[in-house]
Each structure stands twice: as structure tokens, then as C-alpha cells.
Write a structure and sequence with these properties.
Blueprint (H helix, E strand, L loop, with lengths): L1 E6 L15 E6 L2 E5 L6 H8 L9 E3 L5 H4 L2 H7 L5 E4 L6 E5 L8 E2 L10 H7 L3 E4 L3 E4 L2 E3 L15 E5 L2 E4 L7 E6 L2 E6 L6 H11 L5 E7 L7 H13 L4 E5 L4 H11 L11 E3 L1
Parallel strand pairs: 3-4, 4-5, 5-8, 14-15, 15-16
Antiparallel strand pairs: 1-2, 1-17, 2-3, 6-7, 6-11, 9-10, 10-13, 11-12, 13-14
């Protein structure tokens, strides 16, 4: 198995560009997979610099309907107009984040949406490639997409997003967040884009797709940057209890949580960056 970070918030490699977003190229079980495509065309430039042929991708997975994970897909279509793109059926709705917490508690709605920013023309061009999910999808015997991630009781994230239901602004339930799970001989590899339903929820959803299998590697934006110390500790305790071979906290995890995971897990926690390559 091999996976490479085509986009991440940070980089340490000369000739690679970083921006706020996530894109991972994966080779596993005889398949070439694109998991998210960052916020712009830069993921494709990084792919070229890393020797990754996006034209050879067999299928792509969109983790959820936010711009920083989907902005590169119109470019992907230009390079590869045939590969199926698995996207949740709720991912195309317009949504907004907030500053200062929930609107009911005094938070302020962002001026610009955080949702997918494709133009009508781009969406029309992509339409034939989009495969809409809801529940779990088996792509192969060893590769599955979770569909909507069920909430793990007590581990809901501390972020606030809103979308329109007709003319009414309502909380976005983030039902469009899904994870990719790949079964390898050593265990499951779980890829989660932002874990807006909670990283423990994503972890549990991944395990439920392959009952009885251990988790070997978790690669996840964990969205813990706005969490308090107690909430972070409970999440990190749960992650450490899984005794995984590797944990890679990326993108929206937050520096405090990344440092705490590294302190707890040592060499079993890898701080991956754009341009980073992981081989098994």
C-alpha cells in the first residue's frame, strides 16, 4: 500500500505548495484512489511534481461538501473525465460556518459559504462522474465508503455549520461526511477528511464496515482545534486505546491536539505534510 499527500495545510518539501485543504492519492488493493482534491488546482501541480498520474486514478471519494476538499475536482475532471467520484447525496447543499460558536449563543454567520464552490458549468461537466452515496457502499471486497457517519454518543464535535432548508437557515447535520476504509492484511486504514461528526464517530463507522477487524492506521482531519482541553483529552484517550500502528492527524486537527497525540504516541503518530509519502 502507498499513499501520498497531494495537499495539506503545511509542507516541508521543496517544490511542493501547501494550502488549507486536503488531498490524498492512494494505491491499494490494485486500485488507484483520489481522496479529496484540496481547495484549488494546486493539488494537481503537486501531483505532477511528485510523479503522480491523476489520469490513472480508478475512482475518487469526496469526504464531505466543503470547498477545501472539493475545489480541485473540476481540474481532476479535465485530467480524468472517466473515473467515478463517490459523493454523498447531501454534499451539494450550500452551507456556512460561524465565528464565535452557535448562532443561538451569539455566533456570527460567515459572509462566504464554506460549501462546494463549483460553478454551474463545472457541476454540469462533472455530473456524469458523480455517484451519490447515502449509506455504506462496497467498492470492492476490501474497499468501502461509509456514507453518512453515525454519531458516537458523547463525542460530537464542537463546530457549528448551517445550511438553508428552503428559506430557513438550519443547523447542518453534516450527514454528508463520509470516510474511506481499506482493508489490508495488517488491519484497516481509515481516511477521514474533517471528521465533522467527530473523529471517534468516523473511527467507529470505519470499524463497523469490517466487523472484528483491527484498525492499523487512521489518517484524519480531526477538527479539534476549537475543542476544550477536556474534550481533546477524551478523544485522544479513545484514539490511543485503539493501539493503532499509525495515527496521522492532518488538516483541521489543531496544533494542540497534534502535539498531544505526538506526545502520547511517539513514533506511532506521524505529522504528515503535503509531499509526504507513506509506504507499507
Amino acid at each position: 500500500m502507498k499513499f501520498r499527500f497531494l495537499m495539506e495545510n503545511k509542507t516541508e518539501r521543496e517544490g511542493i505548495v501547501a494550502e488549507h485543504g486536503l488531498s490524498i492519492y492512494i494505491e491499494a488493493r490494485g486500485k488507484k484512489i483520489l481522496f479529496d482534491a484540496g481547495p484549488s488546482t494546486l493539488f494537481a501541480a503537486n501531483a505532477a511534481a511528485m510523479g503522480v498520474d491523476l489520469g490513472g486514478v480508478d475512482f475518487a471519494v469526496i469526504s464531505h461538501g466543503h470547498y477545501d476538499h472539493t475545489g480541485g475536482f473540476p481540474m481532476f475532471h479535465q485530467i480524468n473525465p472517466y473515473a467515478p467520484i463517490y459523493i454523498h447525496r447531501n454534499a451539494l447543499r450550500v452551507s456556512y460556518g460561524t465565528e464565535g460558536g452557535a448562532l443561538e449563543a451569539g455566533g456570527v454567520l460567515d459572509k462566504e459559504p464554506c460549501s462546494i464552490a463549483w460553478t454551474d458549468k463545472e457541476l454540469k461537466e462533472l455530473a456524469d462522474q458523480l455517484l451519490f452515496t447515502d449509506g455504506p457502499v462496497e467498492i470492492t471486497e476490501d474497499i468501502k465508503v461509509s456514507g453518512t457517519i453515525p454519531y458516537a454518543e458523547g463525542f460530537q464535535p464542537t463546530d457549528y455549520f448551517y445550511c438553508y432548508d428552503g428559506d430557513k437557515l438550519v443547523p447542518d447535520d453534516m450527514s454528508h461526511e463520509q470516510c474511506l476504509v481499506i482493508r489490508q492484511p495488517e488491519g484497516l486504514y481509515i481516511f477521514s477528511g474533517c471528521s465533522h461528526r467527530g473523529v471517534i464517530s468516523a473511527l467507529n463507522a470505519g470499524k463497523s464496515l469490517f466487523p472484528g477487524e483491527r484498525v492499523a492506521v487512521l489518517v484524519a482531519g480531526m477538527h479539534l482545534y476549537a475543542s476544550g482541553q477536556e474534550d481533546r483529552r477524551r478523544v485522544i484517550d479513545e484514539i490511543c486505546a485503539e493501539n493503532m500502528d499509525q495515527v496521522m492527524p492532518v488538516h483541521c486537527t489543531g496544533i494542540e491536539a497534534i502535539c498531544e497525540l505526538k506526545s502520547r504516541l511517539g513514533n506511532r503518530c506521524t505529522i504528515a505534510t503535503a509531499g509526504y509519502e507513506y509506504l507499507v
